[in-house]
Specification:
14-stranded parallel sheet; 13-stranded parallel sheet; elongated; about 450 residues
Amino acid sequence: MNYQCHVHEPDRPGARRARSRWWAVRLAGVTGLALTTSLGLGGAPAIGTVDGPLAAAADDRPGKPDHASTDNKGHKGKGEQDRRKGAPVPCSADALVAAITLANAHGGAVLDLAKDCTYLLTADIDGAGLPAITTPIILNGGTGTTIKRAAATDQFRILTVDTGGDLTINHLTITGGHSTSNGGAVLVNAGGTLTANRSTITRNIAGAAGGGISNFGITRINHSTVDRNTAAFSGGGVGSTAVLEISKSYISANTADLGGGVSTEGAARIENSAIAANYAQSLAGGLIMESGVGIVTDTRVTDNATTGTGGIFVGSGQFTLRRSTLAENTSTENDGGGLRSNPEASVVIEDSLIKNNTAPAATADGGGIYSAGSLVLRRTKIIGNQAGDEGGGINNESTSTATLFATKVVKNIAGVQGGGIFNEPNGTVELNTATGTTVVKNRPDNCSGDVPGCAG
């Protein structure tokens, strides 16, 4: 089965000239609100952002996200900058709407939301519960700070970030959004930027893509949780067609038709994170990379499920999996329990573990990996994967060249043949045994097809 997709070019907003000024305002006329305060304005980078698209981040526990990432209680985390103090916003949805409206009008602001407060949104403002973000705005939350759509109201998402908008959310929970189009919780349009720090995006619904977040601009997710969101089309947790960065975060228990956890085009970097227990109805339970360049490092992709390709699907472009674990994923009806690629895809896997993935259907191939494009494996272990038909560890299609360096293919099982590796006619497999590659203890055989250097 070939997966067809369309490439969308990511928008790259031009650099803003840094500016800063202070002004005093009085908000009045809103029920229960009378504020006199100073708001810090300017186009300086938002707190917690990285230096640029695809900037690398260090972590002292490879493959394991910082467990503090689920904490939205206002605790300062390791390496996190102090948050900018701003104008307090009382626990009132009307007050929050008024504060954002005023911030947009005056070029931006830092807003401190109330602790132990749920801002319950009841009115639809152009498809969202809050005014569209068009300037640099920081929303600081704390213990128990939540922005939620009231259940009995019309369907709308929580936030839209429009062109020129630069939204940073710190220690917030965003929930209950229900959009009929893209972005159940947040929609980031081209030319907009979202940075989520130590926040939770949960239980939102999109009628199209991005059950939690739909990104057409730049989105950065740091030390955060995106869980239990649903998209009718793609990206149950996050759907992106531009620049996406996920660091030290959890993407879990989301649902979509394609890409239960994350769906990407354009440029994507995921590091020190977990994509776990997501579900897709048709394709890619964990992650689908439709096109572009994707890099996943020090990350666990585990326990995801779908009818076709349990863990990761690569449609086209260049994909790298490094120092990561791809394990316990299931493709119930089709090929590729762990990872599957199309002929247009180039996949590199380094220093990783591919373990206990399954494609159990009688006609399914590639329990660990189903490769139809270019595949390079370095210093990787492929252990305990199962396919109902051929290629328990690796199924190499006729359009694929698989090159293995210092890689172990051990104790994998196929229902018919190629317990370790099955190579289709006209496919190419290079084991490079001189580097330490071994294919042993697989059932019912180690290799089937033309695999030079492999003991059958």
